[in-house]
Design goal:
alpha/beta; 7-stranded mixed β-sheet
Length: about 170
């Protein structure tokens, strides 16, 4: 009998989302689980719903400013309206060097005190934190309607080991 591996287990939840409204609602629910310093990586093709999810997240966190895709600014900071964390919304599509380049952006914000949402971050921001929530949005295979998405949330690291992702499936 082999000894169990000591790598932190990943916590995974799959959710089917049927509309942009539900995607926004998922973001609002997710906001309740997030805390300062959390890193959320969003993966999905263009038009999958990454910005819609992030918009809901911003609403749930109670931050200022309309959440739109930060494609041309690379990163946009949404300061909190209340006592919660700022939301840093990053589009890493054109970021080549990952973290160093993130630092160069000179975001006027402390990453440990913010919730960071990164679109197109695969292979670029993993070194930011061992603890991260990876959200993959796929169009439902074989589905005739264009709105249905399969969302897979995977919490990596100790931060997510005991997080109850089932709260998101409500």
């Amino acid at each position: 009998m082999e000894a169990p591996h000591h790598q932190a287990p990943a916590t995974t939840l799959k959710i089917t989302v049927n509309s942009p409204e539900q995607m926004g609602e998922l973001g609002r629910r997710l906001a309740k689980l997030l805390r300062p310093g959390d890193l959320v990586m969003l993966t999905g093709e263009l038009g999958a719903g990454k910005t819609t999810l992030t918009r809901g997240l911003g609403e749930g966190l109670g931050v200022r400013g309309a959440v739109t895709s930060p494609t041309f600014v690379i990163a946009r900071v949404h300061p909190p309206l209340g006592t919660g964390p700022a939301l840093v919304h990053v589009d890493a599509y054109r970021l080549g060097g990952g973290l160093d380049e993130m630092e160069d952006l000179d975001l006027d914000v402390s990453l440990p005190e913010s919730v960071i949402v990164v679109e197109w971050g695969d292979g670029k921001v993993e070194e930011l934190s061992d603890d991260r929530l990876h959200v993959v949005i796929d169009r439902a295979v074989g589905d005739t309607t264009d709105e249905v998405r399969e969302v897979t949330l995977t919490g990596l690291g100790a931060r997510w080991a005991d997080a109850d992702l089932t709260l998101l499936a409500a």
